Automatic annotation (TrEMBL):
Domain (PurE) ranges: 4-155
Listed name of the protein: N5-carboxyaminoimidazole ribonucleotide mutase
Entry keyword annotation includes Methyltransferase: no
Pathway: Purine metabolism; IMP biosynthesis via de novo pathway; 5-amino-1-(5-phospho-D-ribosyl)imidazole-4-carboxylate from 5-amino-1-(5-phospho-D-ribosyl)imidazole (N5-CAIR route): step 2/2
Catalytic activity reported: 5-carboxyamino-1-(5-phospho-D-ribosyl)imidazole + H(+) = 5-amino-1-(5-phospho-D-ribosyl)imidazole-4-carboxylate
Family statement drawn from the similarity comment of this UniProt entry: Belongs to the AIR carboxylase family. Class I subfamily.
Keyword GTP-binding: no
Enzyme class: isomerase
Residues the entry annotates as binding substrate: 12, 15, 42
Stated role: Catalyzes the conversion of N5-carboxyaminoimidazole ribonucleotide (N5-CAIR) to 4-carboxy-5-aminoimidazole ribonucleotide (CAIR).
Source organism superkingdom: Bacteria
EC numbers, comma separated: 5.4.99.18
Name of the coding gene: purE
Length: 164
């Protein structure tokens, strides 16, 4: 087993339905990743341990998803120098706007990337992680080019279908 380069963490197992989209993209491109439930609110000490150990364990990027009062991405970002990519999970009460605003409005000095609400955001967080890894890894660069071509083919296929 290759050592994971990307850590996908989420506040609750109920976020997996959203966050699995990130895992699927990384898996499709053979990028080693790990998955964990880590919560700033419910398991604060585990969060501190996870964030502080991440770089030393060889992780390069953390994708953090959370819903509602989504403090996890920002708190992890405060505890590690690694890039943290935040995914707002769609909440029932406020449709994820709460999650989005909780992640995006970080104070200067603690940068935390913020993606779209829901599974599309999780996919893009993984695609962005690939772009970061591609800076030093030609294999990931090739994978990204394949992914771009697949997306292009899918769009053109859709275009062909709507021609009268
Ligand atoms: N936002 C956070 C954090 C955190 O930010 O640390 N921990 C859990 N949660 C969120 O609570 C929501 C409801 O969780 P449950 O479904 O377990 O009740 C989830 O979307 C989770 O991300």
């Amino acid at each position: 087993m290759e050592k994971p380069l990307v850590g996908i963490i989420m506040g609750s197992d109920s976020d997996w339905e959203t966050m699995k989209s990130a895992a699927e993209l990384l898996k499709a491109h053979a990028i080693p990743y790990e998955v964990a439930v880590v919560s700033a609110h419910r398991t604060p000490e585990r969060m501190v341990d996870y964030a502080k150990a991440a770089q030393g364990r060889g992780l390069k990027i953390i994708i953090a998803g959370a819903g509602g009062a989504a403090h996890l991405p920002g708190m992890v970002s405060a505890l590690t120098p690694l890039p943290v990519l935040g995914v707002p999970v769609q909440s029932k009460a406020l449709s994820g706007l709460d999650s989005l605003l909780s992640i995006v409005q970080m104070p200067p000095g603690i940068p935390t990337a913020t993606f779209a609400i829901g599974a599309g955001g999780a996919t893009n967080a993984a695609a962005f992680a690939m772009r970061i890894l591609a800076l030093d890894d030609p294999r990931v660069r090739d994978g990204l080019e394949r992914y771009r071509q697949e997306n292009e083919a899918r769009a053109l296929d859709g275009h062909a279908k709507i021609q009268p």
